[in-house]
Design brief:
Blueprint: H1 4-24, H2 30-49, H3 57-82, H4 87-94, H5 97-109, H6 115-132, H7 139-162, H8 168-189, H9 199-223, H10 229-236, H11 238-250, H12 256-273, H13 276-286, H14 294-299
Helix pairs in contact: 1-9, 1-11, 2-8, 2-9, 3-7, 3-8, 4-6, 4-7, 5-7, 5-10, 6-12, 7-10, 8-9, 11-12
Length: about 300
C-alpha cells in the first residue's frame, strides 16, 4: 500500500497536466515545450544527483541514457502519430503498453506474471477502449503510436531491470538530461525553440518539469524496486482515468456512460492485479485518509 499511494499520486499529476499542457502548446511549440520541460526536470535533480552520478559507473550511465532515449522516443513517436491519426485511436493504442510491458518482460528477461495480472491487463485494455471511444485512424499514424507504446513499455521494463542496481536519483537524473538533449536537438532542427512567455506556458512547464517529470520518474524508479513492471504498467493506466476526471472537472469534458464504465474497468483491473489497491481506492472514494500527461492531450493532446 505505501508503494501504491505515491504511484497513484503520480498518475493524478499526469492526468491534471493534460489540461495544462493542452493550453500551453496551443501558444508555444510542442517540441520546444518538451525540451524546456526536461531541462527543468534535469535542473530539479541536478544538486542532489551531482555527487551520486559518479557512482553509476559506465554501465549505470548507459542504463540511464537508454531509459532517457526510450522516454523521449515514446513522447516523440506519440506526437508524430497523433498528427496522422485520430485522438481517440492515439489514446487507446498508447494504452497498449499495458499489454506490451509483461510481454517484453517475458521476452527479454523471462519475467513471468500470474493469471491475476493478465486478468488485470485484459480489464485495463477493455477499459481503455471504452474510455477512448476508439474510432478508426490511419494505419501509418496508428503504427507510430504503437511504436510509442512499445518504447514506453520498454522504459518500464528497463526501469525494473536497473532500479535495484543503481542509485535512484542519479539514474533518474541521467534519464531526464538525455531526454532533454533529444528534444533540444529536435526543437533546434525544426526551428521551434524560443523563449517561453506567459503564465500559462510557464505554469505548465514548472508543473510538468518538476512534478510530472523529475519527481514522477524518480517515484517510478523507487517503486519498481518493490513492484513488477507489469503491475506498474497497470497502475499507470490510471493516468487516462485521471485525465478524464480532470477534463470533466476543469475543462467541461463529458465522458458519458461508456467512458465512466471504462474508468470502472481500469480500476477493477488494478484491484485484480494488485489487491492492496482495493484499500487505497476505498480510501480515495470514501475520503477516509486522502489520497505521462500530456503529449496526447497536449496535441489534441503524455
Amino acid at each position: 500500500m505505501p508503494v501504491l499511494l505515491p504511484l497513484i499520486a503520480v498518475t493524478a499529476v499526469w492526468g491534471v497536466t493534460f489540461v495544462q499542457v493542452k493550453d500551453a502548446v496551443a501558444i508555444y511549440p510542442l517540441f520546444a515545450f518538451l525540451a524546456v520541460r526536461f531541462a527543468i526536470a534535469s535542473t530539479t535533480l541536478a544538486v542532489p544527483a551531482a555527487r551520486r552520478v559518479r557512482g553509476l559507473g559506465q554501465r549505470g550511465l548507459a542504463a540511464g541514457a537508454l531509459l532517457g532515449m526510450l522516454l523521449a522516443a515514446g513522447y516523440a513517436l506519440q506526437t508524430a502519430g497523433l498528427e496522422r491519426t485520430t485522438v481517440s485511436s492515439t489514446g487507446f493504442v498508447t494504452g497498449l503498453y499495458v499489454v506490451l510491458t509483461p510481454l517484453f518482460g517475458l521476452a527479454f528477461f523471462r519475467t513471468r506474471v500470474g493469471l491475476e495480472v493478465w486478468g488485470g491487463v485484459v480489464l485495463a485494455v477493455i477499459g481503455l477502449a471504452m474510455l477512448s471511444g476508439v474510432q478508426a485512424g490511419s494505419t501509418y499514424g496508428d503504427a507510430l503510436v504503437l511504436a510509442s507504446a512499445a518504447a514506453q513499455a520498454l522504459q518500464i521494463v528497463g526501469v525494473e531491470r536497473f532500479a535495484s542496481r543503481y542509485d535512484a536519483i542519479a539514474l533518474t537524473f541521467v534519464e531526464m538530461i538525455v531526454s532533454f538533449g533529444v528534444f533540444l536537438v529536435i526543437a533546434l532542427a525544426i526551428g521551434d525553440l524560443g523563449v517561453p512567455r506567459g503564465r500559462t506556458v510557464w505554469g505548465a512547464l514548472l508543473v510538468t518539469g518538476v512534478f510530472a517529470s523529475a519527481l514522477a520518474y524518480l517515484v517510478q524508479v523507487w517503486a519498481q524496486r518493490r513492484m513488477s513492471a507489469a503491475r506498474i504498467a497497470i497502475v499507470f493506466s490510471l493516468e487516462t482515468v485521471f485525465a478524464g476526471l480532470f477534463g470533466f472537472v476543469l475543462a467541461g469534458d463529458r465522458l458519458g456512460a461508456l467512458g465512466w464504465g471504462g474508468c470502472a474497468l481500469i480500476l477493477a483491473g488494478i484491484v485484480l492485479a494488485e489487491p492492496a489497491a482495493a484499500g487505497v481506492l476505498r480510501r480515495l472514494v470514501g475520503g477516509g485518509g486522502g489520497g505521462r500527461d500530456g503529449t496526447v492531450a497536449a496535441a489534441s493532446d503524455d
